[in-house]
Amino acid sequence: MIKATVFTTARDSGVFAKKSAAAFSDRNSWAENDLVCVEDDFEYQTIRGFGGALTESAAVTWAKLPAALRRKVVELCFDPKKGLGYTLARVHMNSCDFSLGNWSCDDTPGDFALKDFSVAHYREAIFPLIAAAQKAAGKPLWLLGSPWSPPAWMKTNGRMNEGGSLKPECREAWALFFAKFAKAMAREGFPLSAFTVQNEEKARQTWDSCVWTPEETRDFVRDHLGPALKKAGLSKKIGLYFWDHNKERTLERARALLGDPRAAAFVAGIAVHWYSGDHFEQLRMFKERWPEKDVLFSECCCGIRERTETDLWRQGEMYAHDIAGNLENGMTRWIDWNVLLDAQGGPNHVGNFCNAPLRTDAACRKLVVQPSWRCIAHFSRFLRPGAVRLGCSRWTTDLDAVAARNADGSHAAVLLNRTDRGMRPNLRFRGLLAPIELPAHSIATVVW
Description:
eight-stranded parallel barrel; Immunoglobulin-like; 2 domains; globular; 19 strands; nine-stranded mixed sheet; 11 helices; alpha/beta; TIM Barrel; 28% helix
């Protein structure tokens, strides 16, 4: 007999991670129905961690909170025992939609040598939040830097917003910009672990954005960005990820860049978002074709208009379903969008408001923990960095399931029931069975 602990959160119970006991035994070991089978002799990718974005909007909102709530926010996100245990974070290079306005680290037109480059803007709100997050985590974070747009003077449309492209004559300067940003972050005590080439390469947005064709990305990485990071002594310290957009074009973009050996040599992997749907198969095929390259999930969020508890729980289910599907198809790292927003779903300089796992009230005096936070916790608290995903099968697609073995030898399986009926799956491990109660619209993590 193997003892197990079950942590269950159900939409209608109002209780987070209710703890109960279970056991794997040979009783009914020949059962064939309602099985979730964990096969620990099948090992897949190593899970490197979970995290969220430390945007200017999150930082400004955080700074408005009373001191006790500021401590609570970073504890809920980064403390490994009391919170989500985040070990990753994403930071925007220059402004993004979740900033107070358009700005860059060098707004001087024609400054190709970047003599006026400065990260002074980050010291106002963003750096204090990163420092507090790292303190709560108890160690330096794996930091991802992502640009939404080059400075306006480098763009074909002369604006940071509404798409446009990088001017050909600015490619060297823009590559140098990455190297300078990485070195500046390191001097401030926040060394970067990775960059993405461009947030949402295909999107012409009303906010900070820049459009790249697959060929432009390939050539920029091969001829400019990769060499610039190498020249600065950063290429072995900082991983480079491309695409940073929706999963449905994973293979299309990968063929263009990874099909060029010189460009591929600079690339650690691909970064993806969820806004066009599941497309988990794209990740699976990517890993089959390029097993040496990493899959990083770099952004997701939900709309702000849904306000009922049922709607908010549905958002949490979206998170859990996507995390499980991404893990089952090769993802190693998962990063949410804003860790915190205000009651309006901002601030946002173009009105592109959205939800976040943690929100404040209108006066920034209270903290609201959303169902999405609870659903993320069922993964991030129990599938710790260094865990290895194990083989896992389920009797029905009405249930999402993923299992892993942690570095300490413990096992964890996350089960998600998005249906209106309760389930009683039999978790099967090494020929033993553990019956699990899974109410309608619930998520459970089984640890043994």
